[in-house]
Amino acid sequence: MEAMVAVRSKPMLVAMLGLSLAGALPAAPALASESAVDWLNRVAQSRRSSTDQAPWVTGKIVAVHPRGAKLTLAHEAIPAVDMPAMTMTFPVAYMALLDKVRTGDAVEVQAANQGGVVRIVNIRPSR
Prior knowledge:
By secondary structure, the protein is an alpha+beta fold. The protein has three helices and five strands; from the N terminus they run H-H-H-E-E-E-E-E. The chain is elongated and about 60 Å long.
């Protein structure tokens, strides 16, 4: 649920805007020092490194949840994230991964811990 705040005076609105922008100022030099190309390369490298280390694990798609960018997977143990075999709903790192699967598909997945959240970072049909 979103919170709505009614601002009744222009000075209050200006003060709130100023305070919110002030919080972004410490990050501004770091943002300005990195080009868009450098940022894309860094993101691509971090994706490669997280999936290069993760073993492929077999499982079966129990449900696909496009609205939440998640899938429910009955999977074997996932050593990359120290998880035993179970059925669990996972967020996916990229929405395009959901286009590759349907409920009931036998798959192989790679999972990685991204910012404290275990996500499916890669998926392919089971061999």
